[in-house]
Write a structure and sequence with these properties.
The protein is α/β, with parallel strands linked by helices and about 260 residues long. The protein has a single domain, classed as Rossmann fold (3-Layer(aba) Sandwich), CATH 3.40.50. The protein has 9 helices and 10 strands. The chain has helices at about 10-25, 40-55, 80-95, 110-125, 160-165, 185-190, 205-210, 235-240, 245-255, and strands at about 5, 30-35, 65, 70, 100, 130, 155, 180, 195-200, 230-235. The protein has a 7-stranded parallel beta sheet, with helices on both faces. A 3-stranded antiparallel beta sheet has the order 4-8-7, covered by helices on one side. Helix 7 (about 205-210) links the parallel strand 9 and strand 10 (about 230-235). The two termini are about 15 Å apart.
Length: about 260
């Protein structure tokens, strides 16, 4: 079962996750970090940047791999995930841009680009810590309901609900791409530590299903139950449908001081 940490606010959860990742980077200067986009991890990245700067941590050796990318957006589009990762992760964390990787959604053959991306993760030794959010329909990465739990990095079609949720980032909702390249659930599960962040009441049903429901391709986030090292951090609003919330709070409160995530 995942370790579930419930906090009063999203900011508290983000700060806890950032402190852990900052310690890991300090201990392992060539750590491979899997990074997610969207509004959920933004606070985490801000806290992580502050932690690293406060400690003077050298991040020049850190490698990063993004979960996904839209297919077909121009390279200079502000909502391409390459651009988002650059301004929210690479620059604030002081990473070497040459060490930050995003699927090539502008490739002439995106299917081949997806296979190449999976191989690049393997060549880097795999992801040490993967940051995840969860969609309202239970997707992780852009693995929509029905995605194989063993899937690899590939081209996918975005669900209408996902396109609707992401329309807020675009001037015209019609500009939201229909296709993406995403790490598969099987690829994500190969990361050594998964940290899933979930904030807000609109994520409560998906979070409860991911943590406590049956493992099912109908709710891709439930695949975290198959992983040996998962930390879920959620605020009160996202946690409201968890049936074992008090047990999670007790387990976290009584956790041995020497034991981290």
């Amino acid at each position: 079962m995942a370790e579930v940490v419930l906090t009063r606010t999203a900011d508290e959860a983000s700060a806890l996750a950032a402190a852990h990742v900052a310690r890991e980077i300090a201990a392992r200067p060539r750590l491979v970090l899997g990074v997610a986009t969207g509004s959920t991890p933004e606070g985490f990245y801000r806290h992580l940047a502050r932690c690293l700067a406060a400690e003077g941590t050298d991040t020049s050796g850190v490698r990063a791999f993004a979960l996904d990318e839209y297919v077909g957006l121009p390279a200079d589009h502000p909502e391409s995930y390459a651009a988002v990762i650059d301004r929210t992760v690479t620059m604030p964390l002081g990473l070497d841009p040459a060490h930050v990787h995003v699927p090539d959604g502008r490739a002439a053959d995106p299917f081949a680009a997806a296979v190449a991306y999976d191989r690049a993760i393997d060549a880097a030794g795999g992801v040490d810590i993967q940051i995840l959010g969860i969609g309202r329909n239970g997707h992780i990465g852009f693995n929509e309901p029905g995605s194989s739990l063993g899937s690899r990095t590939r081209v996918k079609t975005l669900a209408a609900s996902t396109r609707d949720a992401n329309a807020r980032f675009f001037t015209d909702p019609r500009d939201v791409p229909v296709h993406c390249i995403t790490q598969g659930i099987g690829t994500i599960r190969e990361a050594r530590h998964l940290i899933l962040l979930a904030f807000g009441a609109d994520k409560s049903t998906a979070l409860a299903g991911a943590v406590e429901g049956p493992v099912s391709a109908s709710l891709p986030g439930s695949a975290i139950q198959l992983h040996p090292h998962v930390t879920v951090l959620a605020d009160e609003d996202a946690a409201q449908k968890l049936t074992q919330a008090e047990a999670y709070r007790e387990a976290w409160a009584l956790k041995p001081a020497a034991q981290s995530f």
